[in-house]
């Protein structure tokens, strides 16, 4: 059951249509009923097509525009998968924080902080490293500056970023600085 991409919940007409055209589409699908409903939220790699909204069910698409041409139906399914992939690729979790790359916002519970593109890039670069990152490396990798330039751009941006995070989330230790450079505090 876990290898299916599309789950059709108590929507027999759609399931029968897809069975008929299965050899012409590149899509794995399955039909589930009420007894299998509790298992659906544990499946993160699927979309669930339903006729009516089911409260508390993740990844569901309510589909009640019938009749519809087969081409429009397949287009709708493809669009929903594209949206799901876009959404999944747009968020990064860093400790207790959620970083939305599309809106360039950082969230912790109900608190939200708007970030610049360089701030997002800096956080991601620091988070992906297992060791502290030097000012020179950040200058080169994030800002694109040559290492021989004398500039305090990185220090200034990191200082302002730390100040914004501290003010919004009351977290003075999200970005740690030490003699080897900067790093993101890892989960303990």
Element layout with pairings:
Blueprint: E1 6-9, H1 12-20, E2 29-32, E3 47-50, E4 60-62, H2 70-89, E5 91-94, E6 97-100, E7 105-108, E8 111-114, H3 117-127, H4 135-143, H5 153-169, E9 175-178, E10 181-184
Parallel strand pairs: 1-2, 1-3, 3-4
Antiparallel strand pairs: 5-6, 6-7, 7-8, 9-10
Helix pairs in contact: 3-4
Please give a structural write-up.
The chain is α/β, with parallel strands linked by helices. The strands form 3 sheets. A 4-stranded parallel sheet has the order 2-1-3-4. The chain has a 4-stranded antiparallel sheet with strand order 5-6-7-8. Helix 3 packs across helix 4.
According to DSSP, the number of beta strands is 10
Instruction: Give the neighbour order of strands across the main sheet.
Output: 2-1-3-4
- The unreliable regions are none
Distance between the termini: 35 Å
Shape: elongated
Gyration radius from CA atoms, angstroms: 23 Å
Q: How much helicity do the residues have?
A: 25-40%
Q: Which terms would index this structure?
A:
4-stranded parallel sheet, 188 residues, 35% helix, alpha/beta, elongated
In short:
The chain has 188 residues and is an alpha/beta fold. The chain is built from five helices and ten strands. The model has no long low-confidence stretch (mean pLDDT 83).
